[in-house]
Amino acid sequence: MKISISPPESSQCCTSHNFEDYLKCPTKCWLRFHGEEGAENSYSNWARKQNDAYRIHGLKRLTDKLQRDEYARSSSQVEKIKTAKWKLAVDFDAKRGNLQSCIHAVERVPSNGQDKPIQFIPIRFIFTNKLTKEDKLQVVFDALVLSETIGNKVSHCKIIHGEDYVTSNIKTTGMMNEVNRTTVKLQQMLSNNTPPHLILNKHCIACEYKTRCRHIAIEKDDLSLLSGMSEKERKKFNGKGIFTVTHLSYTFRPRRKSKRFSGKQENYHQGLKALAIREHKVHVVGSNELRIGGIPVYLDVEGIPDRNSYYLIGIRVITAHAPVQYSLWADTKAAEKNIWSSFIDILSAIHDPIIVHYGSFETTFLKQMCNRYGGPPQESNAAKAISNPINLLSFIFARFYFPTHSNGLKDIAKYLGFTWSESDASGIRTILWRTEWEGSQQALLKQKLITYNTEDCEALNCVADFVGRASQPQSEGKEGSALELVHADCVPPEGFFKFRKNEFQLAALEDINRSAYWDYQREKIVLRSDKRLRKIHKTCAKKAATNPNANIIIQLPAPQSCPRCNRRKLYKHAKYSKEVLDIRFGRSSIKRWVTKYEFYYYRCPACGAVFPNSDRPWGREKYGKNLLFLSMYLNIHLRIPQIRIAVFLNQIIGLNLARNVINKFKAKTAMLCRFSYEGLLRKIVTGKLVHADETRVNVAGKVGYVWAFANLEEVVYVYAPSREGDLVQTLLKDFKGVLVTDFYTAYESINCPQQKCLIHLIRDLNDDLMKEPFNVEYKELISEFADLLKSIIETVDRFGLKTRFLRKHKIDVQRFFKRLSQGEYQTETAANYKKRFEKNRTNLFTFLDYDGVPWNNNNAEHAIKAIALLRRDIGGVSTENGIKDYLILLSVCETCRFKGVNFLDFLRSGEKDIDAFADRGLKRRRSISPAPLLE
After folding, report:
1. Which domains can be identified in the chain, with CATH numbers?
2. Neighbouring residues of 679: CB distance < 8 A, sequence distance ≥ 6
């Protein structure tokens, strides 16, 4: 019989079972307390049976060491506990007020002195080898109930756990306050008639209410569906009013990564994960490519984490003919060494193996096996593969956002179309199968485990192949990929407070909204009811449709002979005309100029051929060059948008041009200037000095980058779809001059002398000093650097950028770095800048060794300002071809400005070389005659 101490029962009694359930999941605790039945969970039943058997056997081990009268199972009164003679009480039911606990065992320790009370120590049995915080809190709860029951403080308790029945002593003082707070929350929850807010957690996989709770969470679209979100993050989002995954998906904003943090790992964006789920598309961040240099070996290991043992190693080797699968099985823990040796033998037989696995379980496996049984010989291919495995999960994290609620291998592989033969296959199920096999030795269970492990290897291969393809450059346009990829930089910002076309869910609402547009009402409704406005509208339309009169008419002569039979006698067949619209520049004016060409088609009476005069002074173009050049001068040099240029030419010059015509002018002018652009690029990259910088542009809804390369007289802009350093490395691979840049790491790979922009460094120093104005040692470091640089700048202001005057400062620079290397800085900011100075030591004062090299990157920044102003004033979204045309024209325009040449005069001259045009020194004036026509 059990010792029972039972005060009056309470309807809201807090028992040890309630407390255990609450620690795992408050929802589970509430449902069990209110008697709601859940579905059968095999792992939960198995764990409960294991713990019951372990407790019975553990109690037997304790009682076998005692005499029959030294342990108690019979009923006793509360007042007789302190005078009892037993040393151990088994299955002790303690109850006090609203607290109740079924303690596995209570140890009674007699006092050593008269003033010391008898100690009662609660004991709990747990079958696992590793203890969790929840296990410790449960036994402290036993101690709390026991102390309330006997009226004495319980200072410590015991947990007997594991295969070896290890005893762990737990002090109650450090955890009692947490147990008290949890007990209060538990009682408040149980007294409530409504369940707590449902939150999915890691215990769900072993819970009988898993299906019920997940169904509710999916209906509510709850944030806890995202398994990678911590409780702190979830509460933070809830505090902002975000409770669903869909709401969270609208919070993602693509951010431009700072140059300072370009080399660091990208942060994980919960909003982007939610966006991927909402759009059911894979979203990619960054441009890192998964590269497997050798033969991939896909590894998946099965083991029992609680025992720290491994029993099955799955290996999938990709060969030239077909994949080869290995399954290394260990019947007992003693055979673990054998499968490890077989694993090493398989690796050693492969030329340049590369281990690919998923998650940290295999990483721990490789380290522990090497420590236990030793690894392959050093410097061997197998040793290199074991020491440098590829964790695919680490590569995917914060780079690939799959439309799945977790980044588990099962979820991602199922999204990619892979399926397992066992629908409920999971890592926790393998523990049950292995335990059952150890008891029954059934071949079916062993085959289940091997099949599951083999399918895990295949799933890993499937995910790795997809990630490898998707991480390659330009993967969006590749054929054979059924899943659409979205790059995070190209995600359009979501928001309602912006000018955009309204989108309606109902077609009727869209029709009503369309009828409310100003142009629609003006042209379709108002004109029908107002005669005066209707007359004005007809007059404007008639005026716009009127063709301008020709300023000059040119008659083309007849051809000399028939092009087919050379007969000279020809007859006129039909009359045609061609009008070319252009403008004419006067000394202080411009005017519309229309040239009309009249010509005949002729017929040969001998052979019957019909033909015109092939020697014609015009091409297929309708507009002349002067009109093109003036439009581009207004667009590029004066930064007037194309639609306003069309309005200006139509209203002032009297033309009738559409906006798309100006856009065609831009493409044609860029084609005429391409030779000049390529010459500028060659001159810059073969020169002695290059300034470089980059900026972001919006290209057809995507993010692109414009790189500016400049010297003291020329500037060239180059478009690239990304900010990676491939473009710079390609253009400057043969450059041997001095490269002046900011601190972006992409420039460091260029093999040439480099000068880092000291203005960028000074701004960073000043910004951090403003944040830490009382950091004395950091202020001293900046002051010393500022004094050094100031003396150098004074010499530059006096003598210019000449080495013979600047080289005297090299001694001061050496002294500065010597003092810097000897300094020991305590503050983090000063220490970081010490590392930064030492890292860039060879690139900070390069200008002291070369004539004409500036100490800042102002030329490139000034060039970037031009593209920024053009981007701001012109506005709109351009295509990739459109932005390239802009850059050709802007390169020529800015170079003309650097050389003091008028951009419009250079275009009209027909010259291809800007230097040749500038060196002629002729008086450039606008010609009275119209410009030659496009060929």
Report:
1. 14-190 (3.90.320), 202-265 (no CATH), 295-472 (3.30.420.10), 623-653+661-756+857-915 (3.30.420.10), 758-855 (no CATH)
2. 912, 913
Are 759 and 847 in contact by the 8 Å Cβ rule? The answer is no
Tell me the per-residue pLDDT of 852-874, one tens digit each, with 9 for 90 and over: 999 998 888 888 888 888 777 76
Strand partners, 72: 89
> Distance (Å, rounded) from C-alpha 425 to C-alpha 415?
16
pLDDT tens per residue, range 378-420: 888 899 999 999 999 999 998 899 999 999 999 999 999 999 9
List, in sequence order, every residue forming a beta bridge with 694; answer none if it has no partner. Answer: 707
Rounded distance between C-alpha atoms, residue 552 and residue 533, angstroms: 37
Enclosing H/E stretch for 312:
strand 309-318
Q: How far apart are CA 879 and CA 873, in angstroms?
A: 17
Q: What's the rounded Cα separation, in Å, for the pair 315 and 456? A: 10
Contact between 102 and 16 (Cβ < 8 Å): yes
Measured in whole angstroms, how far is the alpha carbon of residue 280 from the centre of its chain?
17
pTM for the predicted model, two decimal places: 0.56
SS3 of 371-422:
HHHCCCCCCCHHHHHHHCCEEHHHHHCCCEECCCCCCCHHHHHHHCCCCCCC
- CA gap 457, 480 in Å, rounded: 23
pLDDT, tens digit, for every residue of 536-583? 666 665 555 556 788 888 888 888 889 888 888 888 888 888 888 888
Return the biggest CA–CA distance within the chain.
146
* CA atoms within 13 A of residue 867's CA, in its CB half-sphere: 29
pLDDT value for 480 = 39
> How many C-beta neighbours within 10 Å does residue 53 have?
12
Q: Reduced to 3 DSSP states, what percent helix, strand and coil does the chain have, rounded to the nearest 5?
A: 50, 15, 35
Q: How many residues does the chain have?
A: 935
Q: CA 410, 414, 420: angle at the middle one, nearest 5?
A: 70
Burial of residue 181, with CB atoms counted within 10 A of its CB: 0-12 exposed, 13-18 middle, 19 or more buried? exposed
Q: Are 237 and 248 in contact (CB under 8 A)?
A: yes
Rounded Cα distance between 26 and 182, Å, is 11
d(CA 807, CA 828): 33
Q: Which residues touch 854 (CB under 8 Å, ≥6 apart)? A: 691, 740, 755, 801, 847
What is the Cα–Cα distance from 601 to 724, expressed in whole angstroms?
58
Residues pairing with 107 in the sheet: 88, 121
Alpha helices in 649-775 (DSSP H): 659-685, 726-731, 758-771
Strands (E), 22-118: 71-72, 88-96, 99-109
CA distance 529 to 526: 5
Pairing verdict, β 390-391 and 166-171: unpaired
Cα 290 to Cα 292: distance, rounded to the nearest angstrom: 7
Specify the pairing of strand 323-329 against strand 88-96: unpaired
Q: For residues 176 and 2, what is the distance between their CA atoms, to the nearest angstrom?
A: 27
Instruction: Please give the distance of CA 53 from its chain centroid, rounded to a whole number.
Output: 50
Q: What is the DSSP letter of 244?
A: B
Residue 239 one-letter amino acid: G
Distance of CA 765 to the CA centre of its chain: 29
DSSP 786-820: HHHHHHHHHHHHHH-S-HHHHGGGHHHHHHHHHHH
The whole-number pLDDT of residue 325 equals 94
